[in-house]
């Protein structure tokens, strides 16, 4: 009998060791209420006054509340050590928990981690947080505000759904991907973030009030994919294909996009001839643009193999490579589809969000979605547009907020053509609503009509500019088409011009761009008494200052 008992004891000990090694949660009695484990190197203990202490290193484990039998008694949480994640459902239904301050070591809050903590009013998020899991604060009905730090990458679907007291949701991360579900933030919350971020588009698509963190501008608006399509030009010719990639920022202010344009038709290139022949084969017998577009779309969907991270831009060599290799990700599908549509005269645009890219085409007078990656053709797609780029009237445009309209982000020329470009006239059209500051290379001299957006751009983005009739010309190199020193622009240099410079100098007034161009004789970037002196000398000598 003693031997049998001994064997049982040994087996029980082995079982305990086995379960411990598997990282399973366990509970045992302590001087407090209870304690146990919630990870391989993490323990928890609950004191009689409701303080839950979690101690250890690494990630919490499990998919339920380890202290479930005592969840109603938890009032406060203390973390000791180097905890890196909050496990799924860890604090679920801890209904008396009112405040949580998460240590900076935590990078992940897993799904339903604090779900239905109905008295939770305050959460202090860690600065190193990267992921807020699905439904992680679902039905935290007392939670009034959340302030999400700047390095967060994911705020997953329904993270703050049915948080009915939530009034303020601040997302300081401009790169966070916000889950595409209406309840990701409860509809009671005013959302704060950066324009053109995923947070911004979430607010726009679900009609939430959005305040820009950098400008404090507040708007309430609702957009749809159709809003983007409606913002495209109603008619345009097929100039070529476009792509848009990385953004240029000054702090959190967007300066523009890295865009590409392709319109090459090299009749001597074998791959071009093969693409052209394939387009003619596919569209033979088609009587409408819609039929042509559908034939090209189906061929691309069937014949290209999806390869993740094998992307593409509007570059003819990449287009040729995609056609020959017949593989790539959504960018590759889109670029080849757009190029084949371009070859049969159908205008295209490139639509994208943070996770996908697809084609949009002007077909029989209507802009429609053509997604040859996901086999979708027509006016419905589950993918929400964040940006859409296209070529129009000699320029590459982007729509990143359909309520703002089309913004210029480049010239509709290939990279090699732009390298050879010394001067460019900004077209005048009613469609243009703005020009991004990175749209034109700084070495290119620009011209535009007076009274247009092009004029505003030149004055703001070129060091020197001059009015010539009804046109403005601007450059970052000094322009000498005016008479240097002729401050009153009467065609000659007189003591009155020197007087005008002295007035500006003595008043301490900042001169205008034009005044600097004309009156800065010594080129030091300011108007001084020395410039006035040089004008008087030129007048007395009867010479010009050129």
Q: What is the helix tally?
A: 12
C-alpha-based Rg, rounded: 32 Å
% residues in beta strands: 25-35%
Query: Which shape, going by the Cα principal axes?
Result: flat
Which structural class do the helices and strands define?
alpha/beta
What is the makeup of the main sheet?
9 strands, mixed
User: Averaged pLDDT, please?
Assistant: 90
First and last CA, distance: 117 Å
Strands of the largest sheet, in order across it? 1-2-3-4-5-7-9-11-13
Report the uncertain regions: 1-8, 10-30
User: How many E strands?
Assistant: 32
The percent range for helix content is: 10-25%
SSE diagram, text form:
Layout (H helix, E strand, L loop, with lengths): L1 H20 L5 E2 L5 E6 L2 E5 L4 E9 L16 E11 L12 E3 L6 E2 L12 E3 L6 E2 L12 E4 L5 E2 L12 E4 L5 E2 L11 E4 L4 H8 L3 E4 L5 E3 L4 H6 L10 E10 L2 E10 L7 H14 L5 H15 L1 E2 L9 H10 L1 E2 L1 H14 L4 E5 L4 E7 L2 E6 L4 E3 L8 E6 L2 E5 L6 E6 L3 H5 L3 E3 L6 E4 L9 E5 L3 H9 L2 E5 L2 E5 L19 H13 L5 H7 L9 H13 L5
Parallel strand pairs: 4-5, 5-7, 6-8, 7-9, 9-11, 10-12, 11-13, 12-14, 14-15, 19-20, 27-29, 28-30
Antiparallel strand pairs: 1-2, 2-3, 3-4, 15-16, 17-18, 21-22, 21-25, 22-23, 23-24, 25-26, 26-27, 30-32, 31-32
Helix pairs in contact: 5-7, 6-7, 10-12
